[in-house]
Fold:
Amino acid sequence: MNLNIDLFYFINNDLANPLFDVIMPHLSDCGGFVTLLVLCILAILVLRYYKKEKYLEIAKMCFYALVLSGIIAACLKLTYHSPRPFTVLEHVRQLVVPTEPNSFPSGHSSSSMSVVTVLVWCLRDNKILITLLIAFALLVAFSRVYVGVHYPFDVFVGALVGVVSGVVVLKLKNQK
Structure:
């Protein structure tokens, strides 16, 4: 067996427990593109209304990073037609139904990490919040393997796409 499949089975089967079976599908949903897009748009609208310019700029950067990561992840999914684990492996515990068939890379990992990268940089003085944000993004990535729809390598590359997207947006913002 290869490490990617061994680690998949460890997370998906060996770590299985009733608490995670309830929590992980919901956590996974929280890191999805649509969920984060709605949150970014709501934040932009609310912050614009209350004239909170600093936080409005952060919300816009989160939006741009999210869109960029979504485009990159979608292009990779269209380029590499990697089947989901539950379609090719036996004994997979599938706890959610994915919206499309390609596994590589994880769009949820990409989405959550893109937003978290921007937030961590912009809110870097708040160590507790940074810790919680990073934990959230890592748990979203973990949840995608736990619920049976991604391999560990999928979430690693998705997270990398998210971080790069966030950094690109931050660099572009700093060039203005």
About this structure: The helical segments are 3-14, 18-30, 33-49, 53-79, 85-88, 107-122, 127-146, 152-175. The longest helix spans residues 53-79.
